[in-house]
Amino acid sequence: MSSMGVLNTEPTQPPEKKLEQLDEVVIRFCGDSGDGMQLVGTQFTNVSASFGNDVSTLPDFPAEIRAPAGTLAGVSGFQLNFSSRDIFTPGDQVDTLVAMNPAALKTNLGDLKRGGTLIVNEDEFDKGNLMKAGYDGNPLLDPEFAARFRLHKVAMTRLTRDAVSGLGLSQKDADRCKNFFALGLVYWLYDRDRTPTEQWINDKFKKNPAIQEANLRALRGGFNYGFSTESFTTHYQVPPARLAPGKYRKITGNEATAYGLVTGAKLAGKRLFYSGYPITPASDILHELAMMKSFGVRTFQAEDEIAAMSATVGAAFAGEVAVTASSGPGICLKGEAMGLGVMTELPMVIVDVQRGGPSTGLPTKTEQSDLLLAFFGRNGDCPMPIVAAAGPGDCFYMAQEAIRIAIEFMTPVLLLTDGYIANGAEPWLIPRMADLKPIKIEHPAGKTGHSPDSVNGDGENGFMPYARNEKLARPWALPGTPGLEHRVGGLEKADGTGNVEYSPKNHHHMVMTRIKKVAGVADYIPLQEVEGPATGKLLVMSWGGTCGAVRTAVRAAIDAGKSVAHTHLRYMNPFPRNLGEIVKRYDTVLIPELNSGQLLLLIRAKYLVDAIGFNKVQGKPFLVNELVAKIDEVLESQPS
Amino acid sequence: MSTSSPASNLPILTAKDFASDQEIRWCPRCGDYSILAQMKKVLPTLGVPRENFVFVSGIGCSSRFPYYVNTYGFHGIHGRAPAIASGVKTARPDLQVWVITGDGDALSIGGNHLMHMLRRNLDLKVILFNNRIYGLTKGQYSPTSLVGHRTKSTPVGSVDNPLSPLCYAIGSEATFVARAVDVDIKHLTTVLERAAHHQGTAFVEVYQDCNVFNNGAWDYATDKAKKADNVVYLEHGKPLVFGKDLKKGIRLNGMHPEVVELGKGITEDDLLFHDEKSPEPSLAFLLSRMRQPDYPEPLGVFRDVAAPIYDKVVNEQVASVIAKNGPGDLDALFNSGDTWVVE
């Protein structure tokens, strides 16, 4: 039977197909950055999440928007792990790899399991593309290569053109549908419902019926190809996961950050003012918030990072919940104005979606290398509370925490996320506003009527802008309040009056007061928790976006009967006040980080423990296997 | 509106009510004193409650200004006053926000922010104190210092081509552009008042004398004996005449201004007539290019036109979305898109 004829009609007599059950599958779609791989990856994720699988995703795209077609530099990939169990990572190794051209095959093949399913668009394996990818010959024709995988050579370009013929599309437009052909085929392979994607196509292309119909046909064509052809003998089911009961949706870290910021402002009874400058991978926060005008959100796309930070300081002075976000290079530029925020003791939140550095570094890849920048990246003794989200959904909660701490302590707060959790998605148990705790603000009341004599520092009836409460926070007086007219700025202040004051003792006092204020946040955050035995041979300590991988690895070690525990930090400055006591309960502390050892330095310095690091600085998240192997290595090297 | 509506029940305030208790730390005889004094005179006349004023500054001698005015004030960091003020004003359009800056602050380290504030046309009043020197850092040449100026950092004379603040502002299509001189008190007051009432960014350059590091930089515009021949006062709809007996004028020869003597067949009708309302900024730009010693330097309002105001439009967008769709419901937002229930 010719495969061509069956594409647009449901076949009546399909070949015999087996349906098998699997617990967990990792798929990666890869192709040129113009091939629409992020789109089909997202569609597969949405459909799987709606079906009830636990999902975790890892988009991986090049820094160049459209590198020359067919080149290694232009390869874009989207990996997702979907499972019938709880999962915390997008998976180490790929079960099914879909490669749209030789360059995609070459850059991604190393992650495919031995014996894994490999689906390639064989039409793209021509001499020119093979050469661009650096292949001497066509690997698909090598029997030894074919024997290592379950190889499916599919003429996707030709089949897609055939499926959309008669719609009057240009060849270019027809070829742009082949990502949906690939998606349709994988939908069949994993027994997915394609209706939601069909609805999405109908909606997305409703103004262009020909393209709409072409994409629908390509999707069905791919699905029917799997169904009909003898190349595929088996397809698979991954049953729904047993997640905690409740209503779920899928969320990325940047979406969750935006939602968390708006929610935090709402809980404080304020509107959000957000100022930002476009930068990968933080821009999506600006995009999300720009769409949220009905929540009173004002977004200001500033002329540069310095202006974005300065406008944030200005808006905080004006009385708003003021926020900016960026990534490492932008955070460097913001440093001086962040110091101004510390000196003027105004509440604001700075989000750092970390990426590979230094300098421009790896703009689209993840890293955890801004921790010390967050701690120390400003002139003078310039302390700021720092919180870090553990995963995509946690960004929602840590964004609120950042706002809460900023307001309660009248200080700028840094929220650290990273490219991995910012772009990665996971199922999110939908919160209810009624369950979230309001954030209390007390603005000092003005004098009634006119009070010509009120100037800061006049002692008697004057407003004292640097008077402090039990948390050492100063009052947040709103411009427009009669009688509270006062001046703040970057020069050193006299405590109480807030007047400019350079005297040696006052400066010492103020530096120490600002440090003490931030240290005092420790009394208003949760105690650190440990998963696993309360004492033992090894404590694995993680922070930020590596939570999922480390948790998975430690659980595996615990299941194997090893004396290992896991503690994951979300509050970085100050550390939870029981952390020093926790680290002393284990023979060894292992700190895996996607940097050269930044938390390690802090923990060793602060608690005088001989902690050891496990460091990976490749722009990629940890694999569970790497962590498992490291845990074993550390345990084996210990005297028993 | 650039200000809260003037309420008839506002207390009557005077300049004294706008003085803070802080000791003023400018050098004796600094030109800044005069600007501060005129400002304190103008503020009570604007019909704005004192608590609704915010003064924002950068770094430099002039930027100490907010400490000396008893309103809300923010002494920022070097060059960033326009950005800080943009945050204040976008968040709170009900406040009247003044930006105090200098030639180094605004045109060197803060040049980028100045351009973007001007093109956005935020409703801010900007006073640039131009003394053609870095005073607070003790005397380096600034972006407005003249070629050949010997300073600590240019011992054999500056080689940088100086920047004209007004050319820059008009090039950025600022909607209100004016120039005044620190010691010309009456004229300065008028210009400050006009700036205060403008809706949109009002940009005012004030020739300010730094008597310590650049004494006499503006003598040609302040010295009673020379002044009349060296400056020309702009008046909307009036010809450009100047000189001791107002016998000299500016005539356009093609695109080139030329200085002419009135009489001998040349009448006022032959002169260039000022039009501050022209939507096309070319005339204002041409005037801003007139410099000593070739031309008298224009003083007064170069340009005063209306354009959409950034902070107003941003807040109107938010209001219109809320009016159209109703106020946002976070629970509804969380539950949007594909959702599923786990039993």
Give your account of this protein's structure.
Chain A is of the alpha/beta class and 640 residues long. Chain A contains 21 helices and 22 strands. The longest helix of chain A has 20 residues, at 209-228. Chain A is globular, with a radius of gyration of 28 Å. In chain B, strand 5, helix 6 (185-197) and strand 6 form a beta-alpha-beta unit. Chain B has 11 helices and 12 strands. In chain B, the strands form 2 sheets. An 8-stranded mixed β-sheet of chain B has the order 2-1-3-4-6-5-11-7, with helices on both faces. A 3-stranded antiparallel β-sheet of chain B has the order 8-9-10. The longest helix of chain B has 16 residues, at 310-325. The model of chain B is unreliable at 1-5 (pLDDT under 50). Chain B is globular and about 95 Å long. Chain B has a domain at 15-217 and 308-321: Thiamin diphosphate (ThDP)-binding fold, Pyr/PP domains (Rossmann fold, 3-Layer(aba) Sandwich), CATH 3.40.50. Classes of the chains: A alpha/beta (640), B alpha/beta (343). Chains A and B meet through helix 1, strand 9, helix 10, helix 12 and helix 13 of A and strand 2, helix 2, helix 4, helix 10 and helix 11 of B. Strand 17 (487-489) of chain A pairs parallel with strand 2 of chain B, so a sheet runs across the interface.
Outline the fold blueprint.
The complex is a heterodimer of chains A (640) and B (343).
Chain A: E1 18-21, E2 24-32, H1 37-51, E3 54-60, E4 75-83, E5 94-99, H2 102-108, E6 112-121, H3 127-132, H4 143-148, E7 150-154, H5 156-164, H6 171-175, H7 178-189, H8 195-204, H9 209-228, E8 234-237, E9 246-252, H10 253-267, E10 272-276, H11 283-290, E11 298-301, H12 305-317, E12 321-326, H13 328-344, E13 348-354, H14 371-376, E14 386-388, H15 394-409, E15 412-418, H16 419-423, E16 425-429, E17 487-489, H17 504-519, E18 536-543, H18 547-559, E19 564-569, E20 571-573, H19 579-583, E21 586-593, H20 598-607, E22 612-615, H21 624-637
Parallel strand pairs in A: 1-8, 2-5, 5-6, 6-7, 10-11, 10-12, 12-13, 13-15, 14-15, 18-19, 18-21, 21-22
Antiparallel strand pairs in A: 2-4, 3-4, 9-16, 14-20
Chain B: H1 32-42, E1 53-57, E2 72-75, H2 81-91, E3 96-102, H3 103-109, H4 111-120, E4 124-130, H5 165-171, E5 176-181, H6 185-197, E6 202-207, H7 219-222, H8 224-230, E7 231-233, E8 241-242, E9 248-253, E10 256-261, H9 282-288, E11 297-304, H10 310-325, H11 330-334, E12 339-342
Parallel strand pairs in B: 1-2, 1-3, 3-4, 4-6, 5-6, 7-11
Antiparallel strand pairs in B: 5-11, 8-9, 9-10
Helix pairs in contact in B: 1-6, 2-10, 3-4
